[in-house]
Amino acid sequence: MPEDASKLVNINIDGQDYKVPAGMNMVDAASYCGVEIPHYCYHPKLTVAGNCRMCLVEMGTPMRDRSTGEPVLDENGVQKIGWMPKPAIACASNATPGLHIRTNSDLTKACRTGVMEFLLVNHPLDCPICDQAGECRLQEFATDYGRGYSRFVEEKNVKPKRTVLGPRVILDDERCILCSRCVRFTEEIDENPVLGFTQRGSHSTLTCYPGQELDSNYSLNTVDICPVGALTSTDFRFKMRVWFLKPVNSICTESSAGVNTEVWSREGKIYRITPRRNDAVNDTWMADSGRALYKQVEAESRMKLPRISGNQVSLAEAIERAAELIKSGPTAYVASGKLSVEEQFLLGKLAKVKPGSVYFVDHSREGDSRLISEDATPNLRGGLVTGLISELPGERLDALADALKAGEVKTVVSFGENLINAGIGPELLKKTDLVYLGTHRNDTTDLARVLIPTLTVFEKAGSFINRQFRLQRFLQAVPGLAGLLPDVVVLTRILGDISGDKTPDPSMTELWAEIAQAIPALKDLSFAKIGDSGVELDGSAYDNLPFHEKPGWHYEPKLEPATTSGSSF
Amino acid sequence: MIQKLPVQERRIVYKHVDEEGYTNDIECYLKNGGYEVMKKAYQAQPEDLRQEVLNSGLKGRGGAGFPTGMKWKFVDHKSGKPIYLICNADESEPGTFKDRQLIYQDPHQLIEGMMISAFANNCAQAFIYIRGEFINGARILENAIEEARAKNFLGDDVLGSGYSCEITVCRGAGAYICGEETGLIESLEGKRGYPRVKPPYFPAVLGLYQCPTIVNNVETLCQVKHVIDMGGDEFAKIGVKGDSGTHIWGVSGHVQRPGYYEIEAGACTFGDLLHDFCGGPLPGRQFKALIPGGSSTKVLKWGEKFKVKHPNDGQEYEWGVEDIPLDAISIGLCGTFLGTGGSIVMDDSTDMLEALANLNAFYGHESCGQCTPCREGSLWLEKLSGRMTSGKARPEDVPLLKDIADQVAGRTICAHGEAVAWPVQSAVPKFQDEYLDKISKQASGQRYNPAGYPLI
């Protein structure tokens, strides 16, 4: 991003004057003005390599007299433009006052046609079987700027077709256009420089250094930034044509970093997750482990049927029974940052209608100082903002265990928390009226009196507040399992059963109207207002809390982080 | 002012090359007045020395011909970073063999020139980047450096001046592209020899290890010694306006006496060089084509006429190839370059398509592969001309050659793009009749033999 975004300069593209932030890269500046400069090697988050030559444009600067430094004027008193004799790459220039470029001149067009032809001479015609087809820059720019026919009749270079670079990435070297984005990513962002070129000239081949592999937890970003189909994801390879897939904006639940993602699905089945650019949160990056989370949707351990004491029942029966147990009480609620803001808000309402202590469980572990924070839940700060908790939770529920032993609590509602892990023994649980709302089976679910299966983050909408106190929303990517309802609906119905005041299932808009009124920190907000890039909240009220998160990308803790506990990441 | 002078060599940097009894050790060098200029130079102020070089009009001898004094002037002295001097001894342009003699026969002249240049530019450290194939050259230089260090001509507190500078020899690994100054710098840093993107990586500001760096050719640095010896203004009197000093012409190919000749700039013509120095064409042959200054410069064809208006005297001339005076200005007027002065002469026994295919094969092999036009264009040209010479040419391949070259020149990161394109861009229009003739003969099953000479 430009160093001083507030300072605008005048530039001229194809005879049209524009104002852009000073110092902005010219490829970005043109796009800012709505003019496309095609490019392959340039990436806004990597250093400039200038090797693809696709962004060649004619460039000129206002002329000044060499000896006096005075502007050189034409007969109309306008400063003359000194056009460079050769085309220049836009990606190696930044916006400076008076910079002129021509993106539609004959020379610029000839440059693009030439570069396109050169890129294709040794590129295999793999499009019918290539994963990148449909989202391939080479295809797009060949259509836009290519010649339309080939003049190349020689034999194409032959290179390795399926090099396993690491556990998650497979390389097709023939498709590689040697833009070096992946090499720069591993060097500059991942700081694990294992990729490089061997051979020379057109025989250059992307490889891993001998004895090494591309096994970093960020390796799949190389697949994302590869402008062609050279680097492919082992998981996604040959699974689905991308034009059949529908991307939906979501948030990664792997940690409190709140990585912005796109979830790609077809006919209710998710095929991949890719990062979505958010310069305030994750830039354009994402950890590999977060991309595998969609597998939880169809996991073996996914719970599909509501049960009462182990017997299958309808969801309505389960909700009714749950409400009865909660009402009979005394009741305690166990939740965590895994719940969305909306769910936490409704839990807060429930805890007012049927008063009981709300316990949070800590899910901290080791982070990676990047996009996997020490907190493994996406929305711990939601618990603070919605007022469910005022202090950081511990990982054990000893206070609740004592209360259960003393008979002060009879009903426990667990929102996806494995209570046995949190220190409440099976014997104690057997004596408890346990209502469990969650997605996957674990030790605790077998002991639940009422079991209400819920939906994963991909099957519902909502919002999380990440470690930066940034409120971000996720949308429903695929339909939920048949017969199940979103958590907010389940909670609303339980609330209605208990209070006797049955309301219709709320829409997100309605729910947010209520939230904005009830929670001062979220006033004036609505679900729509959160937008695709999120809203930064004022978290200064919690500056004195020793959050577990250590410094990471775009995150600096306010206090020295508390020591992490739990299993190592 | 351009006139035929009596043809004679004027040996300045080549003074002792091939001299009877002259050896490359320091004793011999000292006996011949060695390191005296350096002693004198170290009494002067560095900025005065830089001014002398600027006044001399000395142009870089590595091929591009950029004024050395200007290059030094661009160096950022205010950054607070160390300034490096690099001697580019990666002489690998086909047809060029001038630096080799200096390194092998007169290494102390280079060291003296380097120590003067390093002192003039306040360099903290100097390097000699020598092509990998010059194994003995590297040994000779290292030996010479040790000899010079023993006499305190380099190292700590040189000659009691308080100035310290080391020279380190670094061998390349056999890549032509490492002769490109930024490719060289990358290679010297231990990376792949990928030329850097300019802007922003101009060596004078962001060179070796991102510090200000001067990269000069071997011959240039040797010339510096003589510039300081004579004084800049005196040196500028040698040669012609805009191209001072002498040029070493390394003539190879179809002449009677191929070899190297140091001649004052503009003192004679190609005709004089080829006939008087080199003894003319081989018996019974006629000159056909000339690549004037290293293989990447544009080819000249006998029979061409160049109508030029000379900027130095304002007069108009009509020159044939043999009338072109041997200075950068005149050669530049004829649409080609003096380059390194490595002239490749071809006579009428040459199959020009084979000659072009040979050059294309070289540039295809040597493209570093970093940027698209050069990487793909050079190999395409290599494959295309390879197919054309193997009897499978089509007439439409001839304009295609030029089209490909046109898509390379001026669109690459470094000048290798021009090196790839210029031979093709110049040869195709000049020799396309011959190419088409060959293609049609091959198509009808005849053997192609341009002038009926036995094929080698």
Characterise the protein shown here.
The complex is a heterodimer of chains A (569) and B (456). Chain A is α+β, with helices and mostly antiparallel strands and 569 residues long. Chain A folds into three domains: 8-104, Ubiquitin-like (UB roll) (Roll), CATH 3.10.20; 123-298, Alpha-Beta Plaits, CATH 3.30.70.20; 307-542, Rossmann fold, CATH 3.40.50.740. Chain A has helices at 26-32, 106-121, 137-145, 181-189, 220-225, 288-291, 315-328, 341-353, 380-385, 398-405, 426-430, 487-499, 508-518, 527-530, and strands at 8-13, 16-21, 56-62, 81-83, 88-89, 100-102, 163-164, 169-171, 195-198, 205-208, 231-233, 246-251, 260-266, 269-275, 307-308, 311-312, 331-335, 358-360, 411-415, 433-438, 450-453, 462-465, 470-474, 535-536. In chain A, the strands form six sheets. Chain A has a seven-stranded mixed β-sheet, covered by helices on one side. In chain A, strands 1, 2, 3, 4, 5 and 6 form a six-stranded mixed β-sheet that branches. In chain A, helix 2 crosses helix 3 (137-145) and helix 8 (341-353) packs parallel to helix 12 (487-499). Chain A is elongated, with a radius of gyration of 28 Å. Chain B is an alpha/beta fold. Chain B folds into three domains: 34-237, NADH-ubiquinone oxidoreductase 51kDa subunit (Rossmann fold, 3-Layer(aba) Sandwich); 240-347, Ubiquitin-like (UB roll), CATH 3.10.20.600; 352-443, de novo design (two linked rop proteins) (Up-down Bundle), CATH 1.20.1440. Chain B is built from 16 helices and 13 strands. A five-stranded mixed β-sheet of chain B has the order 8-7-13-9-10, with helices on both faces. Chain B has a four-stranded parallel β-sheet with strand order 3-2-1-4, with helices on both faces. In chain B, strands 5-6 form a two-stranded antiparallel ribbon. In chain B, helix 7 links the parallel strand 2 and strand 3. Mean pLDDT of chain B is 94; it is low at 1-5. Chain A binds chain B through residues 48-54, 56, 85-87, 89, 92-93, 110-111, 113-115, 117-119, 121-122, 151-152, 154-155, 157, 177-178, 196-197, 199-204, and chain B through 175, 192, 197, 199-200, 364-373, 375-380, 383-384, 387, 400, 403, 406-408, 410-413.
